[in-house]
Amino acid sequence: MKYFILAKEAIRRFWRRTHLNQIIILLLSLSILIGLAYFAYLASAANVESLKEGLSQSTVIYDKDEDEASKISANRIEGVSIDKVPSNLQNAIIAIEDHRFKEHKGFDVQGIMRAVFLNLKSGRISAGGSTITQQLTKVALLSPERTFKRKLEELFLAVEMEKTYSKDEILEMYMNQVYFGSGAYGVQNASRKYFGKDVENITLSEAATLAGIINRPTALDPNNNYDGAMKRRDVVLGQMKKYNMISDQQYQDAVAEKIVLNDKGGDPLKGKYPYYVDAVINEAINLYGYTQDELLTKGYKIYTEMDQNLQSSLEKVYENNSLFPVSSDGTLAQSGAVLLDPSSGGLRALVGGRGDHTFRAYNRATQLTAQPGSVMKPLAVYIPALETGYTVQSKLKDEADLSYDGYQPKNYNNQYLGEVPMYKAVEDSLNVPAVWLLNEIGLNKGIDSVTRFGLPLQDKDKNLSLALGGTRSGYSPKQMAEAYAVFANGGQRVQSHIITKIVGPTGNFEVEVKPKKTRVTDRKTAEQMTSMLLNVVESGTGRNAQINGYTIAGKTGSTQLPYEDIKEGTKDQWFVGYTPNLVGAVWLGYDITDRNHYLKGKSGDTVVPVFRAIMSGALPHVEKMSFETKSINQHLQEQQQDNISIKEKFDKFDEKMIKEAEKWKEKLEKGKGNLKKFEEKLKDIYNKYRH
């Protein structure tokens, strides 16, 4: 205890001698000043001058050529000037949200102190104390998070905005930006949504109702909570009376008024290319951290990979009901499709469903999780086999009784040839040779290959049924198009994407996309695979995809029904095909498959014609290119021609040799006669010599 007291005294003397109190206060003050300077710098650097122009415009979607393609205008149909907003609505908003709005310079010290006290008492950020100007900075320039850092940013930006804009301009921007529930942003949308009239025609009671919704737009939506909205309306009217904005009689009349709801808001979210726009919003949210509210309210410029010609032609295909199966009860067979540029990874067009479109509903082009069936075979089996040393002519077993620990694959036609060359197994989409080959090269090689192609697998997918696409993991047309783009792109996979850049409402570049590129396999292997997939369209299961004047490679796929007694039918059907510069992937099926809702017939007769229609509409808008490789059929035909040519050469050579032999025979016969004469002459000379 003695040593503790001595140590305490020594520390106290040192503290006094070195003036640590003053140093700590100085450091704290300096830190605060640096922090304030930092936030002041952020506020001054923000381009608030262009904010009003940005908020008066819709979020615009641009295509690959940077031409305007679509608009998102859910936050405001056009926005309204403050002159068209009744003074009662302006006053109602000021009374309930910021009654000192006309007096402060962007922030209200009284409001802030009150909020700080409530936050300290609760131990968290529960009260904002925000002015209308601060709320505008939050919805227009900042993220919606509730932190002290964001609160400081909000405060400094509010001061900067007050220097740039008048009170009327700030209030106008706020009224056109704020959310009123039920998908209605801005006072004009809200007035049409709830009362079926333009905002300039609303009553005092209706104005108070709208102002009351702002604080809790979901909870106080009068469509869902009429009584709560009316109680809040009365609070707003009370505040207006308190601040002498209305008389006692006006208050009494407004409280007594029965609010009649009349929805004439329509669907302001519905614009051109709805499924593509949905995918744009989803990508911005999921990959780049934006919120739906931000994207629908801040007037962004979003540049994409869309080709409007391809998008329009794809949508026309999906409007043609005759191309799609019809169920007995009228339930739509659903489908999703994408068109992708293999060299850039850009999604040129997509449609995510059939029937009426709902904003940000399930998008089967990008969000589908369906088993891929036989379109998995090239990725899981044939590419790794070619890499291992197999060739397109390699013989594969095709026997009915092949079994692997109880797993016994069957060919769809129940026919078996004993053995087939690899290209024939691909062309006719035979199951048994694919499973046999995966087992031969090793399952791990197949798993590695599928992963390289960008398709995730679960542990339960890692078995030999992977060869036939029998996975628990499902994939979308977008994922399958990206995978098959590797073949068109010489073995390189480019990350598929929609957005190329995002420009904020103040003109700042917030996102610039550089898609990741990955070498999946070498060019020679990719070309060998393309040679076999060209056969699929020329003479195999995808022959109905042929288009005059174009060469297409591709693969069919289908998945089995879970009902053993239904022999002729499939659950999912796929076709993924490509030219050198355009990849198309199509899925066809029902959202819920049962005994009455399934696909009848083979994929070659059902989904392939849909693919053909899609490519027939798209290819005229794309530069025509030819594959550097030829189909196996062409190779075999050329080889046959070469063999014929060689035989003909040998035949001509034989004929020439026979003629030459006959000439030599004649010469030889003549030579024999001459030789006999010479022999007789020699005999005469010899006889003369003897005598």
From TrEMBL:
This is PBP1A family penicillin-binding protein. Residues 661-688 form a coiled coil. The chain crosses the membrane at residues 20-41. Residues 71-241 form the Glycosyl transferase family domain. It holds the Pfam family Transpeptidase. In the N-terminal section; belongs to the glycosyltransferase 51 family. It catalyses: [GlcNAc-(1->4)-Mur2Ac(oyl-L-Ala-gamma-D-Glu-L-Lys-D-Ala-D-Ala)](n)-di-trans,octa-cis-undecaprenyl diphosphate + beta-D-GlcNAc-(1->4)-Mur2Ac(oyl-L-Ala-gamma-D-Glu-L-Lys-D-Ala-D-Ala)-di-trans,octa-cis-undecaprenyl diphosphate = [GlcNAc-(1->4)-Mur2Ac(oyl-L-Ala-gamma-D-Glu-L-Lys-D-Ala-D-Ala)](n+1)-di-trans,octa-cis-undecaprenyl diphosphate + di-trans,octa-cis-undecaprenyl diphosphate + H(+); Preferential cleavage: (Ac)2-L-Lys-D-Ala-|-D-Ala. Also transpeptidation of peptidyl-alanyl moieties that are N-acyl substituents of D-alanine. GO terms for molecular function: penicillin binding; peptidoglycan glycosyltransferase activity; serine-type D-Ala-D-Ala carboxypeptidase activity. One of its GO terms (biological process) is cell wall organization. Residues 336-615 form the Penicillin-binding protein transpeptidase domain. One of its GO terms (cellular component) is outer membrane-bounded periplasmic space. The keyword Membrane applies. Keywords: Carboxypeptidase, Cell membrane, Cell shape, Cell wall biogenesis/degradation, Coiled coil, Glycosyltransferase, Hydrolase, Membrane, Multifunctional enzyme, Peptidoglycan synthesis, Protease, Transferase, Transmembrane, Transmembrane helix. The keyword Coiled coil applies. InterPro entries: Beta-lactam/transpept-like, Glyco_trans_51, Glycosyltr_51/Transpeptidase, Lysozyme-like_dom_sf, PBP_transglycosylase, PCN-bd_Tpept.
